[in-house]
Amino acid sequence: xxxxxxxxxxxxxxxxxxxxxxxxxxxxxxxxxxxxxxxxxxxxxxxxxxxxxxxxxxxxxxxxxxxxxxxxxxxxxxxxxxxxxxxxxxxxxxxxxxxxxxxxxxxxxxxxxxxxxxxxxxxxxxxxxxxxxxxxxxxxxxxxxxxxxxxxxxxxxxxxxxxxxxxxxxxxxxxxxxxxxxxxxxxxxxxxxxxxxxxxxxxxxxxxxxxxxxxxxxxxxxxxxxxxxxxxxxxxxxxxxxxxxxxxxxxxxxxxxxxxxxxxxxxxxxxxxxxxxxxxxxxxxxxxxxxxxxxxxxxxxxxxxxxxxxxxxxxxxxxxxxxxxxxxxxxxxxxxxxxxxxxxxxxxxxxxxxxxxxxxxxxxxxxxxxxxxxxxxxxxxxxxxxxxxxxxxxxxxxxxxxxxxxxxxxxxxxxxxxxxxxxxxxxxxxxxxxxxxxxxxxxxxxxxxxxxxxxxxxxxxxxxxxxxxxxxxxxxxxxxxxxxxxxxxxxxxxxxxxxxxxxxxxxxxxxxxxxxxxxxxxxxxxxxxxxxxxxxxx
Length: 538
Ligand code: AHR
Hints:
The chain has helices spanning 3-12, 16-19, 83-91, 131-134, 150-160, 175-186, 193-200, 227-238, 260-273, 298-325, 360-375, 407-415; strands at residues 32-46, 53-55, 77-78, 81-82, 96-99, 123-124, 143-144, 163-168, 211-214, 249-252, 281-289, 332-341, 380-386, 396-399, 402-405, 422-429, 443-451, 454-463, 470-475, 481-489, 509-511, 513-515, 519-524, 528-536. The chain is of the alpha/beta class.
């Protein structure tokens, strides 16, 4: 389905759970066998911790009611920021958070969100005409009170231990305002009025923001530009920005999914013709689109996973196209929006535009995407799951003082061990997923770090088959396994999800793994995500 057509359909959809009758899922059968071979002598690259990043937009319940509850809220908070969210993000070592959009970014005036909160203006939100927003009444989802602005966002990042990644408005603000935003964030106190405003907003010390997106989806909501027009804007916005001693990492607005033409024409204009300094990153967005978040049958389930797996092709296609102009490989990919997107109807509150429940299906989809990034650690520098809370592919759902982590959170917790480790090529041999699934039967990634206890290897695995478990043998040619541990995320029913009333329906648990000298043996349950940690012999 065309992406924009889907957006329209999603906006008009009624609670899918009532409309959609799930077909029976096949009962689990005997285990099939599979082999995983970790090739430690074939390193790919260091896994940038930033590929485990997140995205927060002024969209529905993400900021207001999600991240920001206000200082006077009954919800435990740290100067207005939801405390439990901060604690959970610290636990998974959230490396980077993107803000303020998304489409919202290209309608946002950063000047509205600075200075004393009581004096900030109320502005029409980009999403005001979305069908879900129209059903609300005078809410922050329609008219943004700007109580959450740059200083609140940077403080949120600092509390969570994450790096801020800001997206500049290219569609509706002049380039000078981008310069001023950089100045507000990074100029030393006393040097300029904007630096002093930041100090008055609570931070005499510059924020030192390095990561800046130059627009968002500039082919669509970010201005409907052609690649040539966007390349001209990119040059105008990025030439001679004041740096204040900060090594800025600029991210250019890349294609929708596999639109290689956008990539080719941008790079032709930036590196081919003009010899402009290349951006640090090339942004790519890739979502899956299926019907209902909760009511789905095996076909829908495998369709979601197949779509999520297209991210591998998207990475390879754009990497190839970029290489024609970026022959020295200075630009890396930034997949700063990805996730499973369903029709409306399963949000925990009507104000959560694009809010949806998150099941085991989404955990598998997220995990296979993170594995894809690990396998392409030489190409992908940063990624952001869209979005953090109360939205598409969320890690958290919250309403007032109720808060729950979704199965996606467990995936990020399991995969955090890969951050900063060395990715290595790994082979997976398993029978393909059954019937019409048109999907591999096992995939994943592996990385190693060297610890005082010896070399430690992390293998993460996505076992998508609904019909049977897999009996795995994991070998590391040339190495022996001294200790092994496993954690698994699985549920008897792939529709399983967490709710405020039952927050631990899906939770990762310790699983059995056997060692036999040169290899480890492990039973991967049907529709599961696993992490095996292997300590190697000397
Ligand atoms: O994540 C929701 C929206 O999806 C973002 O605002 C936009 O960039 C994309 O189309």
